[in-house]
Design brief:
alpha/beta; seven-stranded mixed beta sheet; 18% strand; 5 helices
Length: 196
């Protein structure tokens, strides 16, 4: 019995180490310019600034509908750009699933978007990523999953960060920018509460 626990603990530690190593390698590849042609990061611009109107652009929901950032106005929105192959994005989606009810109570809609062409790396599509990592919360009407157009990705994520989110007020102004909601959820919820 003791050997099984030790073996299981070793495999758990080894699995966590491999996931962490994969995240570091992916981050180094992105920083070093290891993106595919035509993906985010090629333009090298800067993120939209807090206090400015969020850039316009379109995205396609997992149901095939084309939506725009301006269509989100009238209600605060969390717009989160992710790479579906990114371990922190997967973990962040799981954490967000546990907090989606809090966002709903604050009348903040969540829009989780796969970066255009997944930043040039292979990863699952949002139609499979969403249910896998959000679980039952995937069907929450206040959470939309989709894929950003190339123009939208370049406008919000020109550096090709693995994940970055923007909290927009009801008029579409950027009020808060951060990444990795799995690690920054308490700050994000505090900022979202100011908007309701």
């Amino acid at each position: 019995m003791h050997r099984r626990r030790v073996r299981r603990a070793r495999w758990t530690i080894a699995g966590a180490a491999v996931a962490a190593l994969a995240a570091v390698i992916a981050a180094i590849a992105v920083v070093a310019g290891g993106r595919g042609a035509g993906t985010a990061g090629a333009a090298g611009g800067s993120l939209p600034a807090a206090g400015t109107l969020g850039p316009a652009g379109s995205f396609t929901t997992v149901t095939g509908a084309t939506r725009t950032i301006s269509s989100l106005r009238g209600r605060p929105a969390l717009v989160w750009f992710v790479a579906t192959w990114c371990p922190s994005c997967q973990a962040g989606t799981q954490v967000l699933a546990s907090k989606i009810a809090a966002f709903s109570r604050m009348h903040v809609r969540v829009v989780e978007l796969e970066d255009y062409q997944d930043l040039g790396q292979p990863g699952p599509g949002m139609a499979s990523f969403g249910p896998q990592f959000a679980g039952a919360s995937y069907r929450n009407p206040d959470w939309t999953f989709g894929t950003a157009s190339q123009a939208l990705t370049l406008a919000y994520n020109p550096q090709g960060y693995l994940d970055v989110y923007f909290l927009l007020d009801s008029s579409g102004r950027v009020t808060y920018i951060n990444s990795s909601p799995g690690s920054t959820m308490s700050q994000l919820l505090a900022r979202a509460a100011r908007l309701s």
